[in-house]
Amino acid sequence: MSTLINQDKFSKYPVAVDYGLTIEQAIGLGRYDWVNESVARNNFPTERKGKAELIVELIYFGYKVSSNKALKELDLMGYRPAELHELLALNEKYYPEIQKEYPIVALGSIWEDWYGWRRVPALHQDASEDNPDLPRLGLPSIRSEWETRWRFAAVRK
Description:
The chain is α+β, with helices and mostly antiparallel strands and 157 residues long. It has a single domain, classed as Roll (Mannose-Binding Protein A, Chain A). It is 20% helix and 26% strand. Strands 1, 2, 3, 4, 5, 8, 9 and 10 form an 8-stranded mixed sheet that branches.
């Protein structure tokens, strides 16, 4: 049985995703203060094709959680982790509201950098920057624990 707490803490966002867009094109449809250059270098291929209408849900566990635990919990709940194309579509449609609330990670797209660090795309803000209302598209390393404030973008299987 899933140990997810705060099950009422789900946020549902209908989006249209075009998997045929390059990552650069999909990034161009959104507004970002900063984009990690490795996001746009074809490091996140997808096997999905065409266009899809789907609902991205932001799952909030309410406690610190490891990536492995989050993935197991999502699976038990009938979700798969969102991929980069889905995260970009989410930001495109729901900017600026969505990223002002909390950082969002897409565990369905993993890239290993040159140093062997596994990284995942994430939307977050940095209030100390020149454009505090614009999201940043970063690549945090997969963490042994994600802080409580993080939301996990997921799609029903």
